[in-house]
Design goal:
The complex is a heterodimer of chains A (336) and B (359).
Chain A lengths: L5 H13 L6 H9 L3 H19 L9 H29 L6 H17 L2 H26 L16 H16 L16 H26 L1 H4 L5 H4 L14 H4 L1 H26 L4 H18 L2 H26 L9
Helix pairs in contact in A: 1-6, 1-8, 1-12, 2-7, 3-7, 3-8, 4-12, 4-14, 5-12, 5-13, 6-12
Chain B lengths: L1 H13 L12 E12 L2 E14 L2 E13 L2 H9 L5 E3 L5 E5 H17 L8 E5 L2 H6 L8 H10 L12 H9 L6 E8 L2 E11 L2 E6 L1 H11 L5 E7 L2 E17 L2 E15 L8 H28 L7 H9 L10 E12 L10 H4 L1
Classes of the chains: A mainly alpha (336), B alpha/beta (359).
């Protein structure tokens, strides 16, 4: 395989910044910020850049055993958060009657298979899927433009300033927290920091347009009714009066995002577990058994899902704080 | 080799479809659903269709299956008990509610169909007065009710006298606290299924019916139909204009809501005794049609106001613009200003018996 270049690493930012918006982020921001969502997107990106510039100055791949165990737990929680939304999406739109663990198992096996190989495999998949994702999103943008009702963007100031700030911070958390995975890669972050931030802004612009199109097409009142408004808008796509019902195909961009995210979470977990235990087989078994328990006893539990929906951003905040406190010693300030 | 075997085994045993796989032959495709209520029980009539072959010809035959239940889910489940196949709702064209069920449970109906993951969202919802009559009528044009309804709403040359919104757009209006919905009325006239009128609502209650002409003006004000034909009579001479471009603006002055409508129209047909070569005639038609539209809209607004229904969504516009209810559709006076500009005559050069021939 060819050597992974910088672009392969940077393609990750798009997936990492988007993943926590699936199922929770978009519906929460839109239904809480209402017509003032656009301010949250702008301020959120600004806050996100600040948080990201702190995170990208840290890494944990060289830290000691205890820190690595804590990082293992944090990333495992992030993996479960991403997995919950993935399972619910598949279980709601594709495989309604299928057992949730059966949905996850092929994905897990694929992820474990790629984990055994070098990280370059994951990076190549990521850069290829990025092109596919952007093509799908571009197609969705163009076809949805005529469906937009501009009235849905007004009145602009519909919530208090305090709430806008709070939701902007929430937006920043969703888009930044998964980027802590960069800290686990064995490469020098310092010279890539600017490029990561540039990519983060680019992916936030795409995400922002997606959110604004969702708002323009559905309107806030309808968005409040749907768990996946980002999927429902795709139902509106109709091209030349005969290309209809292609929402399941277009929602693949979200599935690709989830796959890349989960595979990178898993890769770092695999690396950490290998460094601690020095055994390759422990992690795959741990992953399958632990996820079986979580899926059977928690993800099937509606009360658990409702709680996670409400405390989603708090979980992200806690993960971020622990990450920063844990790795503050690795913080590198660029010397002139 | 090992990898290939693993991959084949994965495909065979871990495809999620294994547990809920249904082949095409196992599906009964639903074209429309009729919902009624009898003695506190929901009654659903699900329209299915099949191909019937006779003497080298095959034709589609539609039939209804009936189910009763305490709620919609159980009514639909009970209906499916009489079919040996799995009901497939994705291609549903229309959901038709009886007037009774709409009057009693509109909120529940919207709630149920919004959450139903089996249906798509691009079907049409309609109301009918006579559920039995609708089922009995076998239209030669298209024997499948659902397809017929979709055809009428989507393709027929209806002159702008039908609201073309699908379920998702109706739901958008329904959940919006500042808009009252309008639902097309399905009825049987001269043994033909047709959509001639619409019900307009005051929140969840039926406030009254709108005729074709009134629906045209609602579509005109809300810019929701591309082809609107308006009929007028000027000095005993009938003429029709086709709205080509339409801009509706709202102004707010002196405690009044002013509705400004600018129309660019095409003269579609015209009666005798009009000289279209005279500039005056076109100017008079512009003025006359503007005045007629203004009067008709005023009558419509008064009708809606008296029924306490904001089917035009004026309150929503006010909310979007001011962020608060500074003005109100029900309380403030509404003035209408209409400007019509006939820009095209189409293929009409002059009329038989017009001033042109008298010379």
């Amino acid at each position: 395989m060819k050597k992974s270049n910088e672009k392969d690493y940077l393609s990750l930012t798009h997936f990492l910044s988007k993943i926590l918006f699936l199922g929770i982020g978009i519906s929460r921001i839109l239904s809480e910020a209402k017509e003032s969502t656009i301010f949250c997107l702008i301020l959120g990106t600004f806050f996100g850049i600040i948080l990201l510039s702190i995170i990208t100055n840290m890494s944990f791949y060289k830290s000691n055993k205890l820190k690595k165990i804590i990082m293992f737990v944090l990333i495992y929680i992030l993996l479960v958060i991403g997995l919950i939304e993935f399972i619910n999406l598949i279980n709601s739109i594709y495989l309604i009657d299928t057992n949730k663990f059966v949905i996850v198992l092929p994905l897990l096996i694929t992820i474990i298979y790629t984990n055994i190989h070098n990280i370059k495999v994951n990076l190549k998949i990521s850069s290829v899927l990025l092109i596919l994702c952007l093509a799908i999103i571009g197609f969705a943008f163009i076809t949805l433009l005529p469906e937009i009702r501009f009235a849905n963007y007004f009145p602009l100031f519909n919530v208090s300033f305090y709430k806008i700030i709070l939701l902007s911070f929430e937006f920043a958390l969703y888009s930044v927290v998964p980027n802590i995975l960069y800290g686990g890669f064995k490469f020098e972050m310092e010279n890539k920091k600017k490029k990561i931030i540039r990519n983060y802004i680019f992916s936030n612009i795409i995400l922002g347009i997606y959110i604004l199109i969702t708002q323009g097409v559905l309107g806030i009142e309808l968005i409040k009714l749907f768990k996946y408004p980002e999927y429902v808008i795709l139902k509106k796509i109709s091209l030349l009066d005969f290309i209809n019902n292609i929402e399941n195909l277009l929602s693949f961009s979200w599935l690709f995002t989830t796959y890349i995210y989960l595979s990178f979470c898993s890769k770092i977990l695999y690396e950490i577990s290998y460094e601690i235990t020095k055994k390759k087989w422990i992690y795959p078994i741990f992953l399958i058994i632990s996820l079986y328990i979580i899926i059977t006893y928690f993800i099937d539990n509606l009360i658990f899902l409702l709680i996670t929906y409400d405390i989603h951003w708090i979980m992200c905040l806690v993960i971020l704080i622990i990450y920063i406190l844990l790795n503050i010693n690795t913080f590198k300030v660029k010397k002139n | 080799m090992k990898k290939t075997i693993i991959l084949v085994l994965l495909c065979l045993f871990l495809g999620g479809c294994n547990t809920n796989y249904k082949s095409l032959n196992d599906l009964a495709i639903v074209s429309s659903i009729i919902v009624d209520k009898e003695d506190d029980n929901y009654v659903t009539y699900v329209e299915l269709y099949k191909e019937e072959k006779s003497e080298n010809k095959s034709k589609k035959v539609a039939y209804f299956i009936e189910g009763k239940g305490k709620n919609l889910k159980s009514a639909l489940d009970n209906a499916s008990l009489s079919v040996s196949k799995n009901l497939y709702f994705v291609h549903t064209n229309a959901v038709i509610f009886s007037k009774k069920v709409v009057e009693e449970d509109l909120e529940y109906l919207f709630n149920y169909f919004e959450k139903s993951i089996q249906l798509n969202t691009n079907y049409f919802i309609l109301v009918t007065d006579d559920v039995k009559e609708i089922q009995k009528t076998k239209d030669d044009d298209n024997p499948i009710l659902g397809e017929k309804v979709r055809g009428i709403i989507t393709y027929s040359s209806n002159n702008g006298a039908i609201t073309k919104y699908d379920f998702l757009q109706k739901l958008y209006n329904y959940v919006n606290p500042n808009i009252d919905i309008i639902l097309n009325k399905l009825e049987v006239k001269d043994n033909k299924i047709t959509i001639d009128e619409a019900y307009y609502f005051d929140k969840n209650k039926i406030a009254g019916t709108l005729d074709q002409n009134e629906i045209k003006y609602i579509n005109l004000i809300s810019n929701t139909n591309n082809e609107i034909f308006l009929n007028f009579n000027y000095n005993n001479c009938p003429y029709v204009i086709k709205v080509e471009q339409n801009k509706t603006k709202y102004d707010f002055k002196n405690n009044k809501i002013i509705l400004n409508i600018n129309i660019k129209a095409n003269l579609d047909s015209i009666g005798n005794n009009m000289d279209l070569k005279k500039i005056n005639t076109i100017e008079e038609l512009n003025k006359h049609s503007a005045e007629s539209i203004k009067n008709n809209i005023k009558t419509l607004i008064n009708k809606l106001k008296s029924s306490n229904s904001d089917a035009l969504g004026i309150n929503d516009y006010i909310y979007r613009r001011f962020g608060e209810k500074k003005y109100n559709f029900y309380d403030n006076e509404i003035d209408v200003e209409v400007k019509v500009e006939i820009t095209k005559k189409g293929l009409i050069l002059n009329t038989i018996g017009g001033e042109y021939e008298k010379k």
